[in-house]
Prior knowledge:
The protein has helices at residues 12-24, 42-54, 69-75, 89-97, 113-125, 137-146; strands at 2-7, 28-31, 60-65, 83-85, 103-107. The chain is α/β, with parallel strands linked by helices. The mean pLDDT is 94. A 5-stranded parallel sheet has the order 2-1-3-5-4, sandwiched between helices. The termini are far apart. The longest helix is centred in the N-terminal third of the chain and has 13 residues, at 12-24. The chain is globular and about 45 Å long.
Amino acid sequence: xxxxxxxxxxxxxxxxxxxxxxxxxxxxxxxxxxxxxxxxxxxxxxxxxxxxxxxxxxxxxxxxxxxxxxxxxxxxxxxxxxxxxxxxxxxxxxxxxxxxxxxxxxxxxxxxxxxxxxxxxxxxxxxxxxxxxxxxxxxxxxxxxxxxx
Length: 149
């Protein structure tokens, strides 16, 4: 799977660990930065990640910052993105199953590497419940997330 990953300065170490692990697992990972822990603005990287998912460059996205909150808000400004802030595997799985999330966000100051890996695994392996039924309640609701009219 083609996965984009981005962070702010607070999450560069977690990003690097997840990038390397995902690559070892056979995924094609686009690291959208930053490379170092010098102060950056998380919205810039949230927008960059959202653009990669929205234009199809990546199938899924992983957004990381200190808490996961700011970068998830930034990513969600793009109407084609449904980024869920997750902290454990159940929320990651439900974000896919019920909401067809195409990105997850996590906080590097709140989530250790093993829990982050468990969240990513759940996110990548859970199917959307409405995938085979365009008339399902899950699909109807996911559609409204991208088009609130």
